[in-house]
Amino acid sequence: MDLSGIIGYITGFAIMAVIYAIFSLGLNVHWGYTGLFNIGIAGFFALGAYTSALLTTASPDPLMFEDYIFGGDLPTRLGFWNLGIDLWFFVALIAAALVCGIVALFIGFLTLRLKEDYLAIATLGIAESVRIIFLNEKWLANGSKGLYRIPKFLGELVSPQYYDYLYLGVVVAILIVLYIAVNRTVKSPWGRVLKAIREDELTTQASGKNVFNFKLQSFIFGAAIMGIGGALYAHNVRFVDPVTFDPLLATFIIWTMLMVGGSGNNKGAILGALVVWGIWTGTQFLPGFLSDPNLRYVMVGLLIIVVILLRPGGILGEKRVISRLSETQPGDASPEI
Amino acid sequence: MTTSGPQTQRLIPKWSAGYSVVAGFLILLVLGLFSIVKMELVVNGLFLGAIIALGAIGLSLIYGILNFAHLAQGDFMTLGAYIALFFLGTLLPGMGLESSGLGPFTFGYPVFIALPLTILAMVAIAIGLDVLIYRRLRRRGVGRVVLAMTSLGLAIGLRGIVQVIWGGDTYQYPRLSKAFYQLPMGIRIPPDNLFIGVLAIVLVVVLYLFLTRTKLGKAMRATSDNMDLARVSGINTENIIKWTWALSAGLAATAGVLLAIFQAQLLPIMGWRLLILLFASVILGGIGNLYGALVGALVIGVAAEVSTQWLNPAYKIVIVFVIMIATLLIRPKGIFGVKD
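Output (structure tokens, whole complex):
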């Protein structure tokens, strides 16, 4: 492989790692900061990817036996909203976040009043249901053949061989925006309530906070981030079908990333995505039976258990800061005294 | 751990709440008489429900005593089915014990050797995993969600091991096709289902007698009510936990083998696919409640099968999921819900 091939490979790797980092960030809002046990990330992944793909893909082609709703080509067909495919990309991102937020509202409303594990089972159920519905309802999104004409964002701007560099810039920019947004919110009073809920729900309730509302908001916020991740994935691979949203690649690996990187720490969530995706793609270069793709299941499962057993905080772990002022040394108290 | 309500009803509560379920089945029977519902689907749903029940009772036992959602229960079933495949397909034929088509059944007598061996293997694996993983976490005092997540890691890892050893292909136990039983009302029953039904009933009755009549079973129920109180009463709770793993792993192994016979194939994903059905049964019946798991499983099995009369069979899981969501909406504690 020559140098440009290697750089191209690394760019492709980096794009996927950054997209996974966005999911990891969304999961960190759920699990790291609020303690919500969402094991149906694949459902939000699929909803985000399909929403964005359906909104931007060209009309179904009867010659190819394609079939999906919205008829595609929305930017041109909705004359007064003809923003061009590139601005429409942002509409699709927002729509993906909205759809995931609405589904999260529904699931959260039903299960967040109950014990934690109900949310886990319900998210698992919604992920399976979403996958099965997209697989069997051919009119919705072309069934098992999937959508394979998803356009590039700013595709006309650069020649195809350099496009990956551009898209890497796009996903990194979106990751930075989301990172700042999540960091800001979890450090705000709202975010402190979330951490309080995670640590002790009863005490938080006794302090006059509506625990259910806060949990619901956190669940919707994290799910919307996952929707954006799904949309970015769809425009990167430019092909989505129900098999894409297998729980291993769309749920478990993201859990592993967050656990390895350090839940409760946004930098850890991003670092974990890079590390685990590196290990994941690295295994295919291993010699002999070690490159068996089935071993990846064992690896992902083992990583989760080993991290929980040996290093529950992950690589970075959560900073235990009570208050900025509590770090001050005794002696440099306020000048009035 | 402060709880209110009828304490002695944990694990085995009063039957009274089950009338609605009995009424539901009677309505189905009437609908079947007027050929609105195919009775064949109802009957096959009951057999599927019997298999689900074995897995769900194990799940509910772990829920009741260890107090967490054991997400690897489905993959325990898968592993059990594949261990039995090792015995039936490799080890026993290697020893010259090879046969199929015993009596009316598709399988041969080696199943009766392989099943106990599989149960023993799964019990050993479950207790081993508890000692290696869960006991350490219990001693550290981690929360129930962390335990559930550990079991998720275990579920993925176990399925990976099955796929590494056996690959992703489908397998079958050695079998000989047999004619179905033809009953009135257009009911056709594969003969293997009789074995499934009888074995499930025997196991449930034995488990009931064990929990209500033996000292160990009573200690188990006491532990489920209140582990701290059980411990100060002199019950060795670590021992009870080992028995819990043994029972639920044994039930899961049996359910896995029966599922492989029921579907006439083994797939690495078979247990994981059943997990939602197991949890739906447990939630429908009321968490940590064995009657509930049994009745919930029968209802879920019948609902899943009967839905195929009108809907694409792929939607079974979606139907079950809708039932589960409806339960959470209307009666979050389940049909036999006990205050918790």
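Residues 101 and 221 of chain A are 7 Å apart (CA to CA).
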